[in-house]
Amino acid sequence: MYALMRGSIPNAGNEPFEVLKRAAALGASEVTFYSLFELSSTLDKGALGELKAEADRLGIAIGASLDWLNPLRLDRHGRELELGHGELSRGVARLLETGASLGMADMFFTIGTLEDRAGNWAAQLDAVGALLVGLRPNLADLGMRALVKTHEEITSYECLALIERVGADRLGVSYDPVNMLVRIEDPIAAAKRLAPHIAQVHVDDAILRPEEPGSIRRHLVPAGEGIIDWGAIFALVPKAKRLIELHNGQFAMPVFDTDWLKSQPYIDLCEYAGLVGKAVGKREPEVADQGKNGDRLAAAIGICGAAMARPKQ
């Protein structure tokens, strides 16, 4: 069984009933929306109830992310602030309550962007940690966990530090292996570090290729054709939800720039050498058309199906 991100469903558009219908037709057990506001801009209970009833009829679950979560980037939190009458924590608590009412046991969030990492990143992580600590009672009352997504700006080590601060009972990981490449972390090594906390895995794949001057770039490819060893990932976290999310970003990393490397002190030399070696070594597969998501969706579904068919150890 696998879940589908709303944006990875071909021709689904933004209308939630149509999204549910198309996800169910593809055999998904869950469809995950980027935000609860995609379901209802006002979180109207009647509208949400109708959607839940339709999902139940189709035999598919509804999931959603919290979208952004960053108290130092309030320009991204207009709707949460409105929900919370000016208080971000109250607005996020309302989203958690709404998610729980739709049957969600966890909701993942993204902290920032590569540009955010280049700014006051330590202060942002501290503010996110403080917000989540304050939300612990809400999460406990709802029986939920928040999940920090390994987006391209955050390291596995920073995720672990957040979990240590907030508590593993209320904060887990939404593990996105292709984003670890942007941080020059080996996806398997990072998965081993995070494995006890990984509740879901984002399924996609990528290769690395050299690019002038002195960079390597992440290019997206169909699952099973890239760097990610899916058999190893799924073996590490056999109970984690498989969430198909077809990415768009093609990020370049200046891996031969000494100033950049000094600003990434967490990078492990062996992991660095392994990934750079993959980028400058063999030339197969070729870089795929980054806009052809149909082939990538079929491959991702196939990877998830193969994982479910694998006999239990």
From TrEMBL:
InterPro entries: IolE/XylAMocC-like, Xyl_isomerase-like_sf, Xyl_isomerase-like_TIM-brl. Residues 21-237 form the Xylose isomerase-like TIM barrel domain. It comes from the Bacteria. This is Xylose isomerase-like TIM barrel domain-containing protein. It comes from Devosia riboflavina.
